[in-house]
Design brief:
- This protein is of the alpha/beta class and 276 residues long.
- It has 2 domains: 185 residues, Rossmann fold, CATH 3.40.50.150; 47 residues, no CATH class.
- It has 6 helices and 11 strands.
- The strands form 2 sheets. The chain has an 8-stranded mixed β-sheet with strand order 3-2-1-4-5-7-6-8, with helices on both faces.
- The N and C termini lie far apart (40 Å).
Length: 276
């Protein structure tokens, strides 16, 4: 767990009224982070369940986030801090989290993008901001963020509120974004002098892209969205045609896109990022 992700989690707990019980997936505290990676104190007085695929520090219960044994609509808040890059069935995990959240429940998720491979026990995925935005589309209230260079952020993060969204969601969202920006600015200002010098000198011998990665490490950008996205999507290419977004047979909350032009020609699934 990196410092900025822990800070984001703390600020969410202070800004939003996170409903109980709190369930953390990926709660195993790896060697060197025992105690530091403990998020329970941020939710004092609320029932808290730490889940992971293996027993160890911080783990109360063995759970696979892609096949959760908890009942539907039984969890108030779910934390997935630096977790989903280690989940092979990542889309199924998003569906499972949505299933077990109560109405009005909150999902807080952070994940690395420009970051080294780290196997705890394995490392499978990197989500871009656009990918995370699509995965969060079933939630009525959404905050989608990135940190680092806009062309290659080192982290992505999001908060989603399952319908119904509180009436003050927008105000709380903007308060969170403002406080997180101040937190990053203060963290950068507190860097030891030797670290500031090292960062400046390091830019002299780097490419333009590498210099931007260093300079923008503490930069953040967020989008606030409300309303479950419509399942009707229009695609524009040589001949404009409507694309239908259908729920998969398994009941996923994240729609697949189907192109009527391909009906009867085998699979109708169309990748949303490709212009056909």
């Amino acid at each position: 767990m990196r410092d900025h992700n822990k800070a984001f989690c703390r600020l969410v707990a202070e800004t939003f009224d996170c409903p109980a019980p709190i369930v953390e997936f990926g709660s195993y505290q790896v060697e060197g982070q025992e105690g530091y990676a403990n998020l329970r104190g941020m939710f004092a007085g609320k029932p808290y369940l730490g889940c992971d695929m293996r027993a160890g520090p911080g783990v109360d219960r063995i759970e696979d986030v892609s096949n959760i044994s908890l009942p539907d609509e039984s969890v108030g808040t779910i934390l997935c801090v630096e977790t989903f890059e280690h989940v092979f069935e990542v889309r199924r995990a998003f569906d499972e989290v949505f299933r077990v959240l109560k109405p009005g429940g909150i999902l807080l998720i952070t994940s690395p993008l420009n970051f080294r491979i780290h196997g705890y026990p394995d490392d499978y995925w990197r989500m871009t901001p656009s990918c995370l935005k699509r995965m969060m589309r079933p939630y009525e209230g959404r905050i989608i963020g990135e940190q680092g260079s806009h062309s290659f952020p080192h982290s992505v993060m999001a908060l989603g509120v399952k319908t119904p969204t509180p009436t003050d969601f927008d105000d709380r969202a903007r308060q969170l974004i403002r406080r997180y920006g101040l937190e990053l600015a203060e963290t950068e200002a507190r860097l030891p002098l030797r670290d500031k010098i090292r960062r400046r000198v390091g830019r002299l011998y780097r490419s333009k892209g590498e210099r931007r990665l260093i300079a923008d490490y503490y930069r953040s950008e967020f989008q606030v969205e409300t309303g479950v996205e419509s399942l009707a999507i229009e695609a524009h290419n040589a001949t404009t045609r409507e694309i239908r977004a259908d729920l998969p047979a398994a009941g996923s909350a994240i729609p697949n896109l189907h192109d009527p032009k391909e009906v009867g020609k085998g699979s109708t699934w169309r990748h949303p990022s490709i212009a056909y």
